[in-house]
């Protein structure tokens, strides 16, 4: 018997054993007519203020904020890249702070103000950060761009509030608007097209310092 034959036999045996064991609960279930019903997911009302508009949703408690925005409110500007907190494509602003919406449950944000890319600005009335991304060519395919722009708006808010980053040399001084600071603060937003330099230029322009971002 070859190794291949042995594998075939043992695989067949495994399948038979698996089929037999799988049928046991089915048979025993048939003999006990009152089997316990499958648990249904809990739904709960959630109030959010999305882009300035109060919204009441009834959601499975396991619904991420990202899915609440995309699947329930049809705000598809917010992108699902990895769904694991690794790419930043799903970044939105919650009560003014940037957050990966795939990593948080909607029910955790009862009453919160959520701003998505649609709420920042619209064609004809762009947010300054959106306009700067366009001017500086801060994107190619555009998939990461809504998250990049929401994150960039959040970054400038953090700098304004004096929140230091990993590369801030003086934790007590107002953070610099250097390219190094911006790159560090934007490092959670991945761009597979590699538009990073132009993104830094766009953010720097909006921040009003050192156009070109070559600090
Ligand atoms: Fe949320 Fe990638 S989709 S971090
Ligand atoms: Fe394509 Fe960033 S513009 S991934």
Q: What do these coordinates show?
A:
- The protein is of the alpha+beta class and 215 residues long.
- The protein folds into two domains: 42-120, Ubiquitin-like (UB roll) (Roll), CATH 3.10.20.30; 121-215, Orthogonal Bundle (DNA polymerase, domain 1), CATH 1.10.150.120.
- Helices cover 39% and strands 13% of the residues.
- The chain is built from seven helices and five strands, in the order H-E-E-H-E-E-E-H-H-H-H-H.
- It has helices at residues 3-31, 65-72, 117-120, 128-135, 145-160, 179-185, 196-207; strands at residues 43-50, 53-60, 91-94, 97-100, 113-115.
- Strand 3 (91-94) and strand 4 form a beta hairpin.
- Helix 4 packs across helix 7 (196-207).
- Residues 139-145, 191-193, 195 line the site of one FE2/S2 (inorganic) cluster.
Return the structural class: alpha+beta
- Which spans of ≥5 residues are poorly predicted at pLDDT below 50? 1-7, 11-32, 210-215
What is the N-to-C order of secondary-structure elements (H for helix, E for strand)?
A: HEEHEEEHHHHH
The gross shape turns out to be: elongated
Beta content comes to 5-15%
Bound molecules: FE2/S2 (inorganic) cluster
Q: What is the CATH topology classification name of the largest domain? A: DNA polymerase, domain 1
By CATH's scheme, which homologous superfamily of the largest domain applies? [2Fe-2S]-binding domain
Q: What is the helix fraction of residues, given as a range?
A: 25-40%
Overall tally of structural domains: 2
CATH class of the largest domain: Mainly Alpha
Using the 3D structure, state the CATH architecture of the largest domain.
Orthogonal Bundle
Strand neighbour order, sheet with most strands:
2-1-5-3-4
Mean pLDDT across residues: 86
| Count of DSSP strands | 5
Radius of gyration: 25 Å
How would a textbook summarize the main sheet?
5 strands, mixed
Instruction: Determine the N-to-C terminus distance.
Output: 70 Å
* Alpha plus pi helix count: 7
InterPro entries: 2Fe-2S-bd, 2Fe-2S-bd_dom_sf, 2Fe-2S_ferredoxin-like_sf, 2Fe-2S_ferredoxin-type, 2Fe2S_fd_BS, Aldehyde_Oxdr_Iron-Sulfur, Beta-grasp_dom_sf, TAT_signal
Protein name: Xanthine dehydrogenase YagT iron-sulfur-binding subunit
Signal peptide: 1-35
GO molecular function, one term: metal ion binding
């Amino acid at each position: 018997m070859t190794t291949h034959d042995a594998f075939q036999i043992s695989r067949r045996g495994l399948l038979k054993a698996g089929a037999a064991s799988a049928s046991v609960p089915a048979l025993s279930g048939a003999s006990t007519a009152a089997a316990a019903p499958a648990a249904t997911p809990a739904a709960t009302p959630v109030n959010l203020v999305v882009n300035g508009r109060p919204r009441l949703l009834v959601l499975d408690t396991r619904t991420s904020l990202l899915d609440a925005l995309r699947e329930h409110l049809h705000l598809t500007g917010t992108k699902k890249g990895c769904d694991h907190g690794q790419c930043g494509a799903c970044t939105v602003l919650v009560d003014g702070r940037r957050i990966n919406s795939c990593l948080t449950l909607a029910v955790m944000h009862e009453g919160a103000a959520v701003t998505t890319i649609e709420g920042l600005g619209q064609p004809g009335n762009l947010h300054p950060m959106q306009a700067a991304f366009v001017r500086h060519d801060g994107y190619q395919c555009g998939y990461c761009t809504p998250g990049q722009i929401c994150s960039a708006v959040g970054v400038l808010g953090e700098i304004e509030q004096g929140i230091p980053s990993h590369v801030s040399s003086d934790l007590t001084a107002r953070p610099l608007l250097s390219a190094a600071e911006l790159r560090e603060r934007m490092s959670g937003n991945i761009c597979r097209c590699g538009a990073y330099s132009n993104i830094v230029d766009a953010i720097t322009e909006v921040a009003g310092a050192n156009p070109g971002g070559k600090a």
